[in-house]
Amino acid sequence: MSHQAMNGFGGKVLTLENMNPNVRKVEYAVRGAIVQRAEQIEKELKEGVKKPFTEVIKANIGDAHAMGQKPITFFRQVLALCAYPDLLDDNKFPEDAKQRARRILGACGGHSIGAYSASQGIECIRQDVSRYIEKRDGGIPSNPDNIYLSTGASDAIVTMLKLLVCGEGPDRTGVMISIPQYPLYSAALADLAAVQISYYLDEDRCWGLDVAELKRALSAARTHCNPRVICIINPGNPTGQVQSRKCIEDVIRFAKEEHLFLMADEVYQDNVYAEGCKFHSFKKVLFEMGPEFSSTVEMASFHSTSKCYMGECGFRGGYMEVINMDPEVKAQLTKLVSVRLCPPVTGQALLELVVNPPQPDEPSYSTFMKERTEVLAALAEKAGLTEKTFNTVPGIICNPVQGAMYTFPRITLPQRAIDTAKEEGLAPDMLYCMRLLEEEGICLVPGSGFGQREGTYHFRMTILPPTEKLKVVLQKIRDFHVRFTKQFS
Amino acid sequence: MSHQAMNGFGGKVLTLENMNPNVRKVEYAVRGAIVQRAEQIEKELKEGVKKPFTEVIKANIGDAHAMGQKPITFFRQVLALCAYPDLLDDNKFPEDAKQRARRILGACGGHSIGAYSASQGIECIRQDVSRYIEKRDGGIPSNPDNIYLSTGASDAIVTMLKLLVCGEGPDRTGVMISIPQYPLYSAALADLAAVQISYYLDEDRCWGLDVAELKRALSAARTHCNPRVICIINPGNPTGQVQSRKCIEDVIRFAKEEHLFLMADEVYQDNVYAEGCKFHSFKKVLFEMGPEFSSTVEMASFHSTSKCYMGECGFRGGYMEVINMDPEVKAQLTKLVSVRLCPPVTGQALLELVVNPPQPDEPSYSTFMKERTEVLAALAEKAGLTEKTFNTVPGIICNPVQGAMYTFPRITLPQRAIDTAKEEGLAPDMLYCMRLLEEEGICLVPGSGFGQREGTYHFRMTILPPTEKLKVVLQKIRDFHVRFTKQFS
């Protein structure tokens, strides 16, 4: 390119060279190169190209409905009533669904879900979110003023990180995230030019979190940034662990001692399967630790309509609760979210139903409970099946899927595969996943997209496919793994 | 605060002093202090506090349904069918609505709007958007690969600006925006720490845009930043002008000569009322100017489901079309939007209906056309009424509302009012609007929230209230203005 072109005149105004360099650094493996290739293959299949398989199974993303999970009837009835209120006269809809729809519409401008809501979210929904949290946490109070509805949890997480980032050079804000992590975090940090501080989960102890490791990571980071935030995902994504109460206490104590803002990503709070495991909210533990903690530790907790038993990803609903946030900062947060006007009102409506589901004395209760229980029971079964099957394959080691929707097994790769990947400019587990996609039509995400200890290799797979299909998937991965290992040995 | 507290230990982790300084600089007047006060007054009214009025009329924001505008029946029927597909068996719904719902559901993962879509948006909807643009622009081709669905237009505008910002100090990206402007732009630029380059619209020529003024602003800016972008809002917000074809050509020529990326905010493209005015899309004009322009000028155009005749703000639907964008940059854009997974699928579904409405041979056509025509005719009537009424008030001068949904009249304020405002630390037009709110219950946005020439004062009011209510609003503002002027003279 000529000098003149480099300066812009003559060439494009906007090029890879002169675009926002932070955006260039953003990576998001869950929808990265492998998914693009998967979509290409789907097109090729449609066009009649012959492949060793007839469909691509996208186990790369926690997208329940795409995997055949049915929506909760009650939720969709209310949403249809909200969209087209003429149906409120239709006696096919149960009374409790109509009552919820009327409540939601009554809180909308002009009684329409087509009106903007308050930027923080519809007030009566924020009240119901607070009541839901109080019930979940055994009565610990929640203030609707501290609830911000959001466009999925991602939106709230990015907004919260944005508030927290400041400083230049060695004063730049550092943010502690687990490795492996959900790549929204690393992507947001790259975008904000914040410093990522990686702390490693302990694979040998079921992806446990150890405070000594937090201390190591923090003290290493203090030399080049200003650590201000710790992010925790519980239940874990991609690693599926469920944190013990003790561990949560340790993290809270660490956050207080080290003066860190605590971000608790709790979007999988209903997805706990393993015996002896239980979801403990960070907020509940914080308050049970006494006023020394509950009145000082600054925290935000995130939830979403996309996961749990409902899996309504497309609606982009979610909320965050902020605790002990400086009122002046809260005013800034409210201002910041107002620039985007409001979260999607249909997502807010759905969230209202999640936090205010049918009650035992209401007509939709039994169907709702049946549907909810079936989804969670199936997930629990699939969590067990996945762990058991993978652990029968030589060269695959799989921790229990205690919660969430993913397994993150460790795979042993032959040295020749690692060398081949290097030659092709790929991460070794990317080579593995690409081959799996081409040969079996199964789309996974390589562990390198989430981070992993140097020299170890993994992939993330959702456990969402229906049981019979999941069995096929597991069998295919098993066969592939044996074949791949043989091929490169 | 002690030194120790200043350093964080002892005080809050996150304070006004140590939060992201860019976020602090963000301002968004459309939902600023005056709206917060309006909401407080609404609460007071509910609690029985006596006021000189019985309701607050929020004319601060273009929120059609909140002002009583009814949704388009066909759109809501299809959305209800998508939300609750059991209704597809219901013979109360017309066949064309069912056919659209089936098409949308067929394009969703697992046939559910609860699945994530592709990050760029559902493919068949992007195809329909392209066909819609082609039809609008008399056959000029549109490529679905260049269409990105978004969470309202705001989302796409911010994303596009984010791609474009780079450099430090005098190399920092400068972005030209009109004054008055829609404050999403200034807010996004503050957030991105980009340099705002203000060019003034000519109030005396019906808020016209003059290339000499663009040149003045650009050359003044080159001393302290790197101007790379020009943003145009047409039809104008808050100023309601509709640009002539000639003016659009001038802007395109200017963008090419000065090597600027062109961002065309065309969300009010169906909202044109004044005789002799017509909406010309930037893309159409660009292509009609010949290959010298159509193959070089980089551009993005934005549209939304929130405005026009549908006014479905709550669904957060929208799209952008990018033209002549470097393919490597486009790949970066696709990557960037993937981090947020996807725009709300209900908003995408609504957009599908906007770009693919009932056709003459379909059962819903006549109702659809009737509803659409009624909304646009009422808006045209209210645009005329507003201009006429304001221009009868001494001290208010009002340009014709040629398009969009707002009037931005100039108000003459007595010197004593200006002095009083200064004493109270308020912008003079904020004082005016606050008094109007307290005395008459009408919520407007002061001109200072949009920018205006030094020493001039304005407010923005939407023309959306129903005609009879709008008449009352105009009368109340008239009375207030006379009273305010007398009081401060």
From TrEMBL, chains A, B:
Any Pfam family: Aminotran_1_2
InterPro entries, alphabetized: ALAT1/2-like (IPR045088), Aminotransferase_I/II_large (IPR004839), PyrdxlP-dep_Trfase (IPR015424), PyrdxlP-dep_Trfase_major (IPR015421), PyrdxlP-dep_Trfase_small (IPR015422)
Name of the molecule in the record: Alanine aminotransferase 1
Gene3D superfamilies named among the record's database cross-references: 1.10.287.1970, Aspartate Aminotransferase, domain 1, Type I PLP-dependent aspartate aminotransferase-like (Major domain)
Family membership noted in the UniProt record: Belongs to the class-I pyridoxal-phosphate-dependent aminotransferase family. Alanine aminotransferase subfamily.
Biological role: Catalyzes the reversible transamination between alanine and 2-oxoglutarate to form pyruvate and glutamate. Participates in cellular nitrogen metabolism and also in liver gluconeogenesis starting with precursors transported from skeletal muscles.
GO terms, biological process: L-alanine catabolic process
CDD domains according to UniProt: AAT_like
Any one GO CC term of the record: cytoplasm
Catalytic activity, as annotated: L-alanine + 2-oxoglutarate = pyruvate + L-glutamate
